[in-house]
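Collaborator request, handled under Task 6.
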Amino acid sequence: METLYSSTLASRVGPLFLATSGKGLVALEFDARLPGQQTIRPNPRDLRSESGAVRFEDSDRRLSAYKHELEEYFAGNRRQFSFPLDLRGTRFQLECWQALLEIPYGETRTYADIARAVGRPQGFRAVGMANNR
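Structure tokens returned to the collaborator:
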């Protein structure tokens, strides 16, 4: 079982959940708690690695650099991040996420734009679902 180190960040857009592996940031999610739920946690099945299941261990220390860069971003003092990403998903999801990473700072793209960028011009709904993960 793989251990992912997690923490939360109180940001301008609300509480964020962060998790990192030994390879990089594996999760950055908005607060999606259900009523009565105490912690913000993604579904561990969504973050499975080649080694199988994952478990979360709270670690503000391991995520301090990530949190610092995000705080700089929300304060308007950062446009690019230096930390590595550990993206986990299907081939299609990875293609969509790579296309998102190529959007210049300050610009936007529609799901249809991303669908065309990954060679699936009719796949805008699938792009939306990939971005939801």
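The cover message to the collaborator said: "The chain has a mean pLDDT of 87. The first strand starts at residue 2 and ends at 11. Please let us know whether this matches your experimental observations."
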